[in-house]
TrEMBL record:
Keywords: Repeat, WD repeat. This is BCAS3 domain-containing protein. Pfam families: PROPPIN. The keyword rRNA-binding does not apply. It comes from the Eukaryota. Belongs to the WD repeat PROPPIN family. It comes from Aegilops tauschii subsp. strangulata.
Length: 189
């Protein structure tokens, strides 16, 4: 479980780790549901992006060694929060469309060896305006693994829902000497 920095939102993971749910604490209502994956995996850490009102991003690490990033505002991608057709057929389908909409979910595989526990923090979420009316998003995430490594990732997401990531810094917290690996670039569609 994790609270947003303002205490207004609570994120939880299912026992199998396949579903991540976000609740509005004061109203005791579910606001979002996201499918992390189809196979069971232990969720080690959840972290909201910094916020004053409503967080934009929720990140999770799991026993599969992956980092998952979920966007809480589907309108960021030029989409409505609910699919009108689905909404007319299935009551309460907002949660279904949130969970299944790939625009809400991005994955970085192999941030840590499988089964290595980890803790993460979303350090910052920045929007940059470009010629389109929808911004590109730059998210900085810190991950500390139980095998003693600190990693800083920058994840970029475009208005067309393409994502890329850069391993900005990596170093061992257990070494006496400071060694740092920098700027490993990756593109994910």
């Amino acid at each position: 479980m994790a609270f947003s920095s303002n205490g207004m939102y609570l994120a939880t993971a299912s026992e199998k780790g396949t579903m991540i749910r976000v609740y509005i604490v004061a109203q005791a209502t579910k606001s979002h549901s996201f499918r992390r994956g189809a196979y069971p995996s232990t969720i080690y850490s959840l972290s909201f992006g910094p916020c004053i009102d409503r967080p934009d991003v929720l990140a999770a690490t799991s026993s599969s060694g992956s980092l998952h990033m979920f966007f809480l505002d589907a309108a960021r991608n030029g989409r409505n929060q609910t699919n009108k057709l689905l909404g007319s057929i299935i009551p309460g389908s907002k949660a279904i469309s949130d969970a299944l909409d790939p625009a809400n979910h991005h994955v970085i595989h192999n941030i840590a060896p499988a089964e290595t526990k980890s803790c993460l923090a979303v350090h910052s979420v920045e929007y940059s305006q470009n010629s389109s009316k929808f911004p590109d998003v730059r998210t900085v995430v810190y991950v500390v693994t139980h095998d003693g490594y600190f990693r800083e990732y920058t994840i970029g997401t475009t208005k067309s829902n393409e994502s890329s990531w850069v391993l900005e810094r990596e170093f061992s917290l257990l070494d006496t000497g400071y060694t740092q690996k920098q700027n490993e670039h990756h593109h994910v569609d």
